[in-house]
Design a protein that fits this description.
Elements lengths: L8 H11 L11 H20 L15
């Protein structure tokens, strides 16, 4: 069984702005910041894929105990 994942692109972008000190706790980035963040997130994902990282593979594997 896989664990639920709440790391949506919007939450990743919000966390990145908070970690960078550009927003405060509980503050949501505005629409222009989300657009810029989504563009940068897409660039990072595309770069990682050219480096051989397979980001979109999800597979449940049974491991006998």
């Amino acid at each position: 069984m896989t664990a639920p994942n709440d790391n949506t692109p919007l939450s990743i972008i919000s966390d990145a702005y908070f970690d960078a000190g550009l927003t405060q706790q509980g503050q949501i980035p505005n629409s222009e910041q989300f657009v810029a963040g989504m563009r940068k997130l897409s660039d990072i994902i595309n770069l990682w894929q050219t480096q051989g990282l397979k980001l979109w593979l999800l597979e449940d594997i049974s491991i006998p105990l």
